[in-house]
Amino acid sequence: MKKSGLIIFCMVLLYGVKAQDAGALVEKIKGKYNAVKDYEANAKMKTNVVFIKAPVANIKVYYKNPDQLKIRNESGISFIPRGSVNVNMGNIFTMSHYAAIDAGTEMVNGRNTRVIKILPDDEQSDVVLSTLYIDEAQLLVLRSKTTTKENGTYELDMFYGRYANYGLPDKVRFTFNTRDYKLPKGVTFDYDNGSAEKESEKTKDKKGTVEISYSSYSINKGIPEGIFN
Amino acid sequence: MFITILRIELFKIFRKPRTYISFGAIAVMIILIQLAIKVQGTELINFFLGSQNSTFDYDPAKILNGYFVCYFILNTLLIHVPLLVALIAGDLVAGEANMGTLRLLVSKPVSREMLMFSKFGASVVYVVMLLLWMAVLSLFGSILLFGTNDLVVIKETGFHIISSGDVLWRFMAAFLFATLALICIASLAFMLSVFAENSIGPIVATVCIVIVFTIVQQLQVPMFQEYASPYLFTTHMLGWKGFFYVMATDENQTIRGSVENTGAILKSGLVLTGYTLFFLLLGVISFKRKDILS
Amino acid sequence: MPDIIRVQHLSKSFKDLTAVNDLSFSVPQGCVYGFLGQNGAGKSTTIRMLLTLIEPSSGDIEIFGLSLQRHRQQILKNTGAVIEKPDLYKYLSALDNIRLFAKLGGVHPSRMQLMEKLDKVGLAARAGSKVKTFSQGMKQRLGIAIALVHDPELVILDEPVNGLDPQGIADIRKLIIHLSKEEKKTVFVSSHLLAEMEMVADHMLIIDKGKKIVEGPVKSLLNPDKMVIELETKDINAVTQLIQGSSWGDYYKKQEEGKILLEFGTHAVPAFNTFLVQQQVQVLSLRPRHSLEDYFLSLTT
Question: Which of A79, A185, A204 to mutate to test the interface with B (most CBs of B within 10 A)?
């Protein structure tokens, strides 16, 4: 922690000049995002985890400002990554005390973006560091990388369209860390159809992604009680 | 004539009290498993998926639906059902030898081959009825008790989620395959039955062979895995599960109506059919040449 | 009369045991044919070969003038048998048993017809009872009803009176004679009891150790002039000496189990009795014996 503190300190020094700029940009976007008090969205979710084969799921996404988010598969079964609460920028933009550091520019999905690192001041915050890739012209976050205390590092790619005015993406790709899945031999009595080796080889890859394609948002219409419990 | 003798054989089988032991045992086992899952199903899910609890959010109650329960029952039960099949098939010839009715039967104007094929045919009918009974209780019973939803198939190295609308035909196919597997067991017990003068021998021998083969297959010793397992019929008896291993896209999205490796299932089916024909013919030919001394 | 069964040079060996050794015989149509031999003589093996249960090692069997090997089904359709103990499906009723075997025999009698068949052997009242509740005699009778259910021309009965009480034995005897005389069937019946066979059989074949000893009409084989007479008395040695010293000495055979055996015609028994009385011999019993052993004894002298 001490080391990372020192690095952050150095970065703050280095980009100190631009820090005001970065802070202002973040505040502007924050204002835009905070205009959405809640939403209920219909979407399709594709899970891509090496050890899970799942059909495309029809899901509903519920959000309530500041930081409540719930993904529900109304009919079928989905394994929803716990960090998926971060598919929304809420938990970043609801921080009241943070440091925003300008980290230059970078191309993301073919577009030029400002890279800004967000450091929460709050010791209690689960977020340790978040890097935002911002399209300055449209005031939209195209990518974020968030490191948390509890749930590792997440990456979020957002693709905007119809709901860009609200800062809500049409499609989100969420990348997260997975744990190994392996049961002891002989528990499940598997049938050997020749695919087992291929599968165990693949489980060494520790990243999973979830891709959510939104078909419709219902914004600021209120959310039924109890959804987030 | 075949139909006449087949009906006589079925009449004998279904007049024997031990026939109903099998049906009773299956009912009791299925109901016990259903009850256990009803009471402690969440623990079961946590046992299989607990390691993923910190990464994923899932609803155990949804996973514990009728399809999952049926799959779990089949997984547990199909290892034990060979005993119940052996109980009848191992008795077909040896039981008659022991009772003393074989000599009267064979001195009737019916060829020995016809007699044997009818007896085997009767054991096939018995297997089919046993599995129908199992299907009704485990599938429809579980659906009634637990409802339906997507099926989560748990394997050693991962799990497959199959849409609820894509499940039923897989169970039908699995039951058909299980029928083939159990007919193979029936043919083994039937063949052994020819060489014995009382039914305990072939029944115990059949069960022992199944147990030994299963152990060899589960030991995971490389030598066994390479030279023994692929040729044991017990390995291929698990082929019914192949219908629940679903194909996926490069991004791990399951493809509706697909089966991961149809070829492997087909091969297993052929191996089982081969074993069945071998046991059956060995039994019939031996019986044809046998002096009836009982 | 044509021969119903013709057996030529029939042999059967099991590993190192020769059960039947070069056996030849013929069974004339319509007769009761007694097949005699002690236990283990090869009777059952022969009967099992007649019924295709055992494959002969060598030799030929013809039944109804047809080769058994080539016309098995046709022959068995016209043959009924009780082989050793009448074992049946114990968990089925008498009616179920007889119906089942009728179907296997290629006939499909109605329930009424089956009940009639059971009535003939006195089992109509127990038609619905499971066979496991039956006595040995009832099982034997049911076995015979089953052997006759498809109205066969040839009836093979293997030791049919074994384990039966005197009444049961008499019933079977009556039935055998009825089948032969009234229904004109050929009855091939095996036994180890010579006296029993003498009462029912027209022809007789005696085998020992798998080989034929004699074959022919009973009347010519059982000579009443050569009977074994058994005398039981208190002082066996003194009486033996007495007999040997008298004119009866020529008929003396031997001592056996405390009895004196002699051989002469039954017509001479009263004269021998008078002799014993005159000599003041204390007679416990005096009677003709009629066993296969005695018959062998008489054959060998």
Answer: A79
Tell me the pLDDT tens digit for each residue of B138-193. Answer: 999 999 999 999 999 998 888 899 999 999 999 999 999 999 999 999 999 999 99
User: Is the minimum CB–CB distance between B80 and chain A shorter than 8 Å?
Assistant: no
A55, B156: Cβ pair inside 8 Å? no
Residue C106 contacts residue C48 (beta carbons within 8 Å)? no
Domain C3-219 has CATH 4.10.1110.10: no
Distance of CA C264 to the CA centre of its chain: 25
Q: What is the pLDDT along chain C (301 residues), one digit of tens a residue?
A: 689 999 999 999 998 899 999 999 999 999 999 999 988 899 999 999 999 999 999 999 999 999 999 999 999 999 999 998 889 999 999 999 999 999 999 999 999 999 999 998 889 999 999 999 999 889 999 999 999 999 999 999 999 888 888 888 898 899 999 999 999 999 999 998 888 888 899 999 999 999 998 898 887 777 777 778 889 998 889 999 999 999 999 989 888 888 898 888 888 889 999 999 999 989 999 888 777 777 776 665 5
**For C93, nearest residue in chain B (alpha carbons):** B15
Question: CA A25, CA A15: separation in Å to the nearest integer?
Answer: 15
Determine contact, residues A209/A124, Cβ cutoff 8 Å.
no
User: Which own/partner contact pairs does C177-185 have at CB distance under 8 Å and 24+ positions apart?
Assistant: C177/C32, C179/C148, C179/C155, C180/C30, C180/C31, C180/C32, C184/C30, C185/C30, C185/C152, C185/C153, C185/C154, C185/C155
Q: Does C146 touch chain B (CB under 8 A)?
A: yes
Q: Hey, is the C-beta of B118 within 8 angstroms of any chain A C-beta?
A: no
Kindly determine whether residue A191 and residue B154, on different chains, have CB atoms separated by under 8 Å.
no
Contact: C100, B12; criterion CB under 8 Å: yes
Contacts of C175 (CB under 8 A, 6+ apart): C121, C144
CA angle, residues B87, B93, B98, in degrees to nearest 5: 90
The answer regarding whether domain C227-300 maps to CATH 3.30.70 reads yes
Work out the minimum CA distance from B153 to partner chain A, whole angstroms: 10
Whether B239 and A191 lie within 8 Å, measured CB to CB: yes
Task: Pick the residue of C104, C134, C148 with the most B CBs within 10 A to test the interface with B by mutation.
Answer: C104
Cβ contacts below 8 Å, chain A against chain B, sum to: 145
Strands (E), chain C: 3-14, 17-28, 32-36, 58-63, 66-67, 79-82, 154-158, 186-191, 203-208, 211-217, 227-233, 252-256, 259-264, 283-289
Tokens standing for residue B197: 């003068």
DSSP lists the bridge partners of residue C132 as none
H or E, element range at A47: strand A38-48
The answer to whether the Cβ–Cβ distance between C88 and B104 falls below 8 Å is yes
- CB A185 to CB B218 under 8 A? yes
| Domain residue spans of chain C | 3-219, 227-300
B235/A81 Cβ within 8 A: no
Q: What ipTM does the predicted assembly reach? A: 0.87
Which three-class secondary structure state does DSSP give residue C158? strand
> C160 in helix, strand or coil?
coil
Enter the CATH code of domain A3-228. Answer: 2.50.20
